[in-house]
Amino acid sequence: MENIIIKPIGIIRTPHKDIKNMPIQPIAASGIFGHIELFSEYVPGLKDLEGFSHITLVYRFHKIQGYDLLTVPFMDYAEHGIFACKAPKRPNAIGLSTVKLIEICGNILHIEQVDMLDGTPLIDIKPFYPRYDNRENVKIGWLEKNKDLPLDALRADERYR
User: Fold this and answer.
1) What Cα–Cα distance (Å) separates residue 19 from each residue in 9, 64, 117, 123, 157?
2) Class (C level, CATH) for 10-155
3) Three-state SS across 15-55?
4) Taking Cα atoms as reference points, which of 95, 87, 89 lies closest to residue 120?
5) pLDDT confidence of 28, banded at 50, 70, 90?
6) What pTM value is reported for the model?
7) Could you report the per-residue pLDDT of 6-19, keeping only the tens digit for each?
């Protein structure tokens, strides 16, 4: 199989300079603002995006070195397979976050609920559409025992440096 080459379309700017104490999911990052600096050649692709309240960002965990197929995620003390977690130390180090879209000014997208490091390379932007993106009657595996943890209190530590 041939390699896949992915070029960033922009850079995500956030107040998070270090992983320690970062929110572990966007839902836990209310009131934390950032912006996207979209590269100029991609600006025409923003047409009609301003009508959406939320967007899903696909990005690269650019500070991650290597990967672990077994990991202890932030919301547990037991080891799980990487594909049963949202932990960042993954084979392709791809991240996914749905954030609030505040405003678009030229090539700058102002966003809220940022849970990624400053300088994160942006791979793609997709509009969030609840009819397609939400599911009902789902099973959540090992997270079932932690489903009521207060997400706003959960923060990253240094385990994924």
Assistant:
1) 23, 10, 7, 20, 7
2) mainly beta
3) CCCCCCCCECCHHHCCCCEEEEEECHHHHHHHCCHHHCCEE
4) 95
5) confident
6) 0.87
7) 999 999 999 999 88
